[in-house]
Design brief:
This protein has five helices and eleven strands. By secondary structure, the protein is α+β, with helices and mostly antiparallel strands. It is elongated.
Length: 216
């Protein structure tokens, strides 16, 4: 809910800035017109930037507790070649061709600092990448690597990376969470849970439990 509210606030701010730009650029009094024009262009660019940031913020989901954020299943295509099917909590289904023996999913987490945390405002998350990996270090160095972005940024705007690069921002932390690498196996099904600090993947059926048991 918080991230939806932030999105609405950013869109309203972008609209107000756009209206201000129109008022500045089309005002009939041309005294100091050049200055007005430059100010109007700057405000217009600022309103566009705010609108793009709002679209990126809208891609985050609020985390209220440890919760399942996705499930992933595997079908073996060939030796060390698997089709991974990722199903989100909203029912969306995406498929990826992964090479290797192991898989991992990571997430981008936005966590609020005090005093916002004290007000009960919960962290938000967006799934990052899914990665395939080989058991063999030699293969890991020389064989084909497969990495896919799950929840893509909007128009190249990524508020998480900006917050990460500006760690001194007073109210928000940008954290990186990832589940441990787990084995891929034909028919294996896993659930992916997210806590306030990272991801946890757990086997959901017998093929997955057997793969984890043999790997450990």
């Amino acid at each position: 809910m918080v991230f939806q509210i932030l999105t609405v606030i950013c869109l309203v701010l972008a609209a107000l800035l756009g209206l201000l730009t129109i008022k500045i650029l089309f005002k009939r009094d041309w005294f100091l017109g050049w200055l007005r024009g430059m100010t109007g262009i700057f405000v217009l660019l600022l309103s566009c930037a705010v609108a793009l940031v709002s679209l990126d913020v809208a891609s985050y989901h609020q985390l209220t507790k440890e919760e399942a954020v996705a499930s992933i299943s595997f079908a073996k295509n060939a030796e060390q070649q698997f089709r991974a099917t990722v199903v989100g909590t909203n029912g969306t289904e995406r498929q990826y061709e992964l090479s290797g023996d192991l898989w991992q999913i990571d997430a981008q987490i936005i966590k609020w600092k005090k005093p916002l945390m004290g007000l009960g405002i919960k962290p938000g998350y967006r799934l990052g990448r899914i990665t395939g990996r080989y058991y063999s270090l030699e293969q890991e160095r020389s064989a084909e690597r497969t990495v896919y972005e799950l929840d893509k940024t909007t128009f190249g705007i990524d508020i998480w990376h900006w917050l990460r690069d500006n760690a001194a921002f007073p109210l928000v932390d940008a954290l990186y969470g990832n589940a441990s690498f787990l084995p891929m196996s034909d028919g294996a099904l896993y659930t992916i849970n997210l806590t306030g600090t990272g991801l946890i993947a757990r086997p959901l059926n017998e093929p997955a439990e057997k793969a984890v048991s043999n790997w450990q």
